[in-house]
Amino acid sequence: MIIRASAIWVSDMAFSSDIAFTPTVKAIQSRKGSRAAYARQEASGSWQTEITPDFAAFITAQTSVFLATANADGQPYIQHRGGPAGFLHVPDPHTIAFADFAGYRQFITSGNLADNPKAYLFLIDYARRQRVKIWGSARVVEDAALVADLMPEGYRARADQAILFTVEAWDANCPQHIPQRFDAADVERALSERDARITALQAELAGLRSGQARPG
């Protein structure tokens, strides 16, 4: 599935991409020769600010996500979160939600979000060589009913809080420099299908040879 971002204007910004393209960033783009291309992109349409149906399907198919936050002093932190496909939920076109599975209980992300709600999600699909960047804000919700709704069925994990991410803008990158990798489960499934097909063909060949060997 190929995800493409399209144009939508964001409130208090001239363009939705201004969430990342600050004046300083634009000055560097100008100095290094890429500003004109991005200016044309802004004129024809900047980044998407709502989760489209195709993008929602991409999100819910992922088994891994990186969540970036920063504390009150601006110190960044990136946390990986993973789970079975479907552990990321899209309850509406502006929200991504997931149960925050218990780990080493450092609570760095929780602390950062308490001081600074700005957050960023990075999703990468190695098999299809696609990455998507999502800017927004996030909050921790300690609600047992919500956590229960977000927990993947049958998944052996524990969570006592959820994270709700509000999408402000997103952009899909090109596949350049993304190594192509496949999940072990996908490879195992493909090999099992191959082996089953080989077994069926061998049985069919044996039957044909047996028929040819019979006297007329």
Write structural notes for this entry.
It is built from 6 helices and 7 strands, in the order H-H-H-E-E-E-E-H-E-E-H-E-H. By secondary structure, it is of the alpha+beta class. It has 2 domains: 124 residues, Pnp Oxidase, Chain A, CATH 2.30.110; 35 residues. A hairpin with a 2-residue loop joins strand 3 and strand 4. The termini are far apart.
Concise summary:
The protein is 34% helix and 27% strand. The protein is an alpha+beta fold. It is extended.
Helix/strand layout:
Layout: H1 23-32, H2 35-44, H3 53-61, E1 64-70, E2 76-82, E3 89-92, E4 95-101, H4 108-115, E5 118-125, E6 130-141, H5 144-150, E7 159-172, H6 184-213
Largest sheet geometry? 7 strands, antiparallel
What fraction strand? 25-35%
Q: Which regions contain 5 or more consecutive residues with pLDDT less than 50?
A: 1-11
Integer count of domains: 2
- Quaternary state of this entry equals single chain
- The tally of helices reads 6
As a percent range, the share of helical residues equals 25-40%
Main sheet: which strands, in order across?
2-1-5-6-7-4-3
The CATH first-level class of the largest domain comes to Mainly Beta
Mean pLDDT: 87
| Structure class | alpha+beta
Find the CATH topology of the largest domain.
Pnp Oxidase, Chain A
CATH architecture of the largest domain: Roll
Task: Evaluate the radius of gyration.
Answer: 23 Å
CATH superfamily of the largest domain: Electron Transport, Fmn-binding Protein, Chain A
How far apart are the termini? 55 Å
